[in-house]
Design brief:
It contains eleven helices and nine strands. It has about 290 residues and is α/β, with parallel strands linked by helices. It folds into two domains: about 60 residues, no CATH class; about 200 residues, Vaccinia Virus protein VP39 (Rossmann fold), CATH 3.40.50.150. The strands form two sheets. The chain has a seven-stranded mixed beta sheet with strand order 5-4-3-6-7-9-8, sandwiched between helices.
Length: about 290
């Protein structure tokens, strides 16, 4: 089906057969149509333009070639946001939303809070924090070593509108990215750093092939970057400041040990929605 004599209802049915997944087919057809979700349902009996059909067929070709649906669509939902994503950044995942919950809970009653989102990638974590706090409530420093990733984050900041005034995007590796005058003044550091072991046999092949390796792999034990953040945070956080780091589900005890060795206190391992160890929560001594 490639001309303007076919309805979106028929196109959706055919696409669902081809990709063997109706939800994916629905997202692809919505994207090709240019309509938002609720609008698309009202357009099902309208005819598909040749231009929209061409766009849809190209997206289907990419999906069948193994490219992640999120990259094909060019955007993905994260909490209340519609985040632009492509092969320069990791795909936002539901378990990472836990970091946003923990940050917002920490700073909601503390206007003027200073937050760092290390390894921001698409900007999903930092922008979700700004979106869920009152405008002007907090400043979020969003860092990444990849300038390509920061280009994606900048586009997402622009798409956020007025809440984006609290975003500060800087390029660099972990603490090297931050201005020196932030030392001992940060209330929360949140990070979803690389934590995959270099030879992890359980990593999905699609992830290995398509998502940026710079944002995935962290040495033989997957702890290289987590260790850097844990060991450096006391010079930057306020007394009693909060450190939050996402990690792999089998790394809980190793991460807990790193935090204790670094002199952090109130150390907790927080589980994600699936009940797996997922986030280190720890504080600097007061």
């Amino acid at each position: 089906m490639s001309d303007d004599t076919v309805t979106w209802r028929a196109m959706l049915a055919e696409t669902a057969q081809v990709v063997a997944d109706r939800p994916s087919a629905l997202w692809l057809c919505q994207r090709a149509s240019g309509y938002e979700a609720e609008e698309f349902i009202n357009e099902l009996d309208n005819l598909v333009t040749s231009r929209a059909a061409t766009h849809l067929h190209e997206m289907v070709r990419r999906v069948l070639g193994g490219e992640p649906l999120q990259y094909v669509l060019g955007r993905w939902a994260f909490r209340r946001l519609d985040i632009m994503v492509d092969g320069r950044v990791l795909i936002p995942r539901p378990e990472t939303e836990l970091l946003v919950d923990l940050v917002v809970d920490e700073v909601a009653s503390r206007r003027g809070a200073m937050v760092v989102d290390f390894g921001t990638g698409s900007g999903a974590i930092g922008l979700a924090i700004l979106d869920e706090l009152p405008i002007g409530h907090s400043t979020v420093w969003m860092t990444d070593v990849s300038e390509d990733a920061l280009d994606v984050a900048r586009a997402n900041v622009a798409g956020l509108g007025r809440p984006g005034i609290g975003a500060r995007l800087v390029q660099g590796s972990w603490f090297d990215a931050l201005p020196k005058d932030l030392e001992n003044s940060i209330d929360v550091i949140a990070a979803n750093p690389p934590y995959v072991e270099d030879d992890d046999p359980d990593l999905e092949e699609t992830v290995r092939e398509w998502e940026p390796s710079l944002a995935l792999f962290a040495g033989p034990d997957g702890l290289r970057d987590i260790s850097t953040i844990v060991n450096g945070c006391r010079s930057w956080l306020t007394p009693g400041g909060l450190l939050l780091i996402e990690f792999g589900s089998r790394q809980g005890e190793a991460v807990r040990s790193l935090a204790a060795s670094a002199g952090l206190v109130s150390i907790e391992i927080v589980q994600d929605i699936a009940g797996r160890d997922r986030v280190l929560r720890a504080r600097t001594p007061r």
